[in-house]
Amino acid sequence: MSMLEGKVAIVTGAGGGIGREIAIAMALAGAKVVVNDIGASLTGEGETSATPGQQTVAIIEQRGGKAVVNTDSVADWTAAQRIVQTALDSFGRIDIVVNNAGILRDVIFHKMTPEEWLAVINVHLNGSFFVSRAAAEHFRKQGSGAYVHMTSTSGLIGNFGQANYSAAKLGIAALSKSIALDMQRFGVRSNCIAPFAWSRMTSSIPAETPEQKARVARIQAMGPEKNAPLAVFLASDAAKDVNGQIFSPRMNELFLFSQIRPIRSIHSDTGWTPELIAERALPAFRSSFVPLERSGDVFSWDPT
């Protein structure tokens, strides 16, 4: 039996890139899939189109799978309810939610507008909450369900010019952990993937200096399909004991990410004053400070 046989999955942002590959892989693994995509530009602006989602559905059907398209926006509470209802109306149940939909509005922080901030937060963070929340009651009632959320090393580690995206993606990691804690009693799991792939979401990475060009070349070598096997596994019953974790596939590598914990402590019998912190705590902590790095600094070697 295929790993997702009999299950119904929603994959948001499945009109292309990572989302499309996950939707196809889940269908090949036996799931019936709701392919959600509004068909907008990378920035989320301009006209929308059902064509990208329909193309994904066509690929799935050509390979013998079952899928339907949905063009509702994840960034709207009522529309998110309709996304889940599409699964119920089309296939009678919902077992898996993959929160993949996203846009980019990359701007250096001191030039970022409220509109650029809110647009990205609304799609990534609010959208992940809205769709997850819409499915939660159904998961609770049936005593099972799996969430797979897309976080990013831009949030987990850091990146230039992406305050909105980084904040949203780190927020998604916290959202996933909260869902895992709150819903484990109902047999519901929630995990994150921090994907590495050349797709529409990474095509805006600057490639002007030799170092930037080398980094982009490394990412271009990683196709979006490399993330799909991990998503299928996390959505399957084989991952029934995996909850609240963050994983990352990078070409043929798999990473399990740490999550924030205290790394150093210092005690004062008399309490702390600002002066005492400067005199005693700062020297003690300095060697343990987290470096001011971005994702490309940490993942600096060629993928294999």
Automatic annotation (TrEMBL):
Q: What protein name does the entry list?
A: SDR family oxidoreductase
- Which SMART domains does the entry mention? PKS_KR (SM00822)
The chain positions of domain Ketoreductase read 7-204
Lineage of the species this protein comes from: Bacteria, Pseudomonadati, Pseudomonadota, Alphaproteobacteria, Acetobacterales
Q: What species was this sequence derived from?
A: Roseomonas acroporae
- Which ranges form a coiled coil? none
Q: Which family does it belong to?
A: Belongs to the short-chain dehydrogenases/reductases (SDR) family.
